[in-house]
Every structure is written in C-alpha cells, then in structure tokens.
Amino acid sequence: MSKSLWQMGAQIADSVGPWSLHATRSKLHEQGAKVRKRAGIGTDFWQYRPLGDGESSNRIDWRKSARSDDVLVRERERQTPSPLTLWCDRSASMVYKSNAELMTKLDYAYTLAASLVQCVALADDRATALIDSPQTTPRQDLAMRLEEQSEPVLQRIPDNQLVVMISDFLMPEEFFKNFADTHHDFIFVHVCDPYEVAFPFLGRVQFSGYEHEADVLLDKAEAAKADYCAAFEALSLKIATIGRYVRADTSQSLADTVRTIIS
To answer: pLDDT of 32-48, one tens digit each?
Structure first.
C-alpha cells in the first residue's frame, strides 16, 4: 500500500470519526448474525450457573440460590471488544478499472482498509491483518502486512472476532465454503467497478480475463446483459447469506462507503 493511500485513509478517518467495534457487533447480533457469548467483566446479564470450586462467595446470588437446589452465580457477558481483523483481496482481477478517472479496485480496497484501521484507532481499539500468522499489528506496519496477504486462513483467527473481507469476490465456490462453522461476525465489502455493475457494453466486444481465463468475444454484448446482471445479483445475494453485505462501487465516495461499513 502506498504512503499516499495510507494518508488518504487517515484523512477519511478524521472526517468520519471513531469506529466502535462493540456497537457494530451489537447491531449485527440484533440483525441476526451469529454470536457466541462469553463470560467476563460486563454489564449485561447472561445466565446463572452453579458456584465452582474455589470461587469466592462474594459472587453468589443469594436470592436466586434460595429458590434453587444449587448455589448460583450471576454471570455477565464479556464486553471487551475483539480486535478488527481485515483481509484485502490482492488477486489479479482487483487491478481492473474501467476508465482513467477511477481508482483500481485494489487501490480502493486498500484505502478502505486504511480508513477502517484508523477509525478503529480513534476509538482506542486495534486491528489485525489476516495473513498466515495473524497478530495484532501496529498501525504503521499494517499497510505492509496487508500486502503480504494471500488466501484467508479463517481457522487461525481466535473465535469471536469481527472480520472484514474486502474483495470483488470473483472466487470459486470453494472459497465461500470457508465461512461455514466459524464463530466470527463477518462484514463482506464487495468492491465493484461501475462497469461491472451496469454492464454498459454495446456491439462487438472482446472480454479478456485477468487471471488466465480465455478471451470471450461477443458480437452483441448487449444481448448478454440480462444474464450477466442476474449472475452478478446472485453473487451478491450469496455473499449476503453468510454475513453483512456492503457494496462498494469505486465511482462512489470512499468516505460514504466507510460510513456505510461502520454504521
């Protein structure tokens, strides 16, 4: 990630303000995302459980215990925010842009990531780059670590984290199976060039792949628009079934996209 993109991300973060991970996760859970509760220091009551061996009697709920055969402890849900874990897709298709006035999808994704990291920092929280050995990373090193990422290794993330995946999601079906049976909250940021959304092509057009696909020549590109748009929307709906879905059109304001993600 270039220094200019990181600085642009800082400017966007300053305009958008801090990102409370706890508030975002609470909203995701209200909307039906998966949650695994954990005990700890907090204010929200979770459950009663029997007093364990060696535990202090100060934790006993005497009123509840008087109506039970067990000595019960009132347990609260842990509220310490988990770090934000980020993954940016660096596959070849991400370097596409339909005209010189736009950012490539990759530069747009990197700038989003830089903005999100610095919004989290404004809230005194931390972020992690999802690479082979994820770890909490100082902000000044995160740009370099994002560029080390390859395929996400979700199994190496500790349970119960907020994970933001930034990609065009032009992936084989096996990619989406990675998200089954995980205990994270996911936000999928679908980065798209406006031409990929609208398919405005007319007449004889040759499409060349970025990842060793065979070229496709269409005599009347407009005749393929309905099928293409249906497939594009089907991809969007598939992503939305496994986490919160945010579409990020590279012709749209980066600050507005960041606000949508953290809202």
So the answer is: 654 444 444 444 445 67
pTM assigned to the model: 0.75
User: What's the CA gap between 146 and 137, in Å, rounded?
Assistant: 10
CB burial of residue 206 (10 Å; 0-12, 13-18, 19+): exposed
Can you say whether the dihedral through the CA atoms of 9, 158, 105, 243 is positive or negative?
negative
Tell me the β-bridge partners of 162: 84, 185
Q: Which CATH number fits domain 3-33+80-262: 3.30.70, 3.40.1350, 2.40.320, 3.40.50?
A: 3.40.50
Rounded Cα distance between 148 and 7, Å, is 20
Element (H, E) at 137: none
Residues 6+ apart with CB under 8 A from 174: none
Residue ranges per structural domain of the chain? 3-33+80-262, 45-76
